[in-house]
Design brief:
Elements (H helix, E strand, L loop, with lengths): L3 E2 L19 H10 L6 H15 L15 H7 L4 H13 L5 E9 L8 E11 L4 E5 L30 E2 L2 E2 L5 H9 L3 H8 L5
Helix pairs in contact: 2-4, 3-4
């Protein structure tokens, strides 16, 4: 897929944001445990990705009710939906000087178009040592979902079926989408949020 950057300046993908709060003490402490100065950017990206994918459960998978948004809250409470988990992955990698952006897919929410669509969030990471962007989806694996760290061929959580009006958005955004942030901050029950309030598109 031909990815398009919202900004040509890589440093814009390193900025701290309200919900990508990598100077928070919790994020700093986790980064110290996860990373070492001797790791390459590829190794750090893999480490962060696998931590968020495997150690922070997706709220739907555990039928959790807590809604998290800020990276520090996702880490503190140990759960979140894809929007929240993408904030945490961005925070961890930006804390290491690795440019990280936000990408989106429009997917069927369940198994048929009649049951509606939802916006799905993932990340794009710029690996300087390889000179390219790679997309990573730390949503969390389960039966039927097998996202992996890969720098050559994408291994995302979901493939897009355009025949049923699903869509893969090309843009690598600097910030989380406003709609996704809004629903996280306006809702207090993750189950209700997931089944009734997810935005359908950008």
């Amino acid at each position: 897929m031909n990815l398009v950057c919202e900004s040509e300046k890589l440093e814009d993908y390193l900025l701290e944001l309200e919900d990508v709060d990598f100077s928070h003490q919790m994020i700093k402490e986790k980064a110290e445990k996860l990373f070492s100065p001797t790791q390459s950017d590829v190794e750090k990206a893999r480490t962060a990705f696998e931590f968020v994918r495997d150690e922070i459960p997706h709220s739907w998978d555990i039928q959790g009710t807590r809604v998290t948004c800020k990276a520090s809250d996702v880490l503190t409470f140990g759960e979140g939906i894809c929007y929240a988990k993408s904030n945490l992955l961005a925070a961890l990698l930006r804390s290491q000087g690795i440019p990280t952006g936000f990408c989106y897919q429009r997917l069927m929410l369940f198994d048929t178009p009649e049951k509606g669509y939802s916006l799905h969030a993932l990340n794009a990471v710029y690996l300087k040592s390889l000179g390219k962007w790679v997309r990573l989806d730390a949503r969390g694996n389960k039966p039927g979902v097998d996202a992996q760290f890969s720098t050559d061929q994408e291994k995302l959580a979901f493939s897009v079926n355009e025949e049923v009006d699903e869509k893969d958005y090309q843009m690598i955004y600097l910030k989380p989408n406003e709609k996704t942030v809004a629903v996280l901050k306006e809702n207090h029950d993750a189950y209700e949020l997931y089944t009734q309030h997810l935005p359908e598109d950008l």
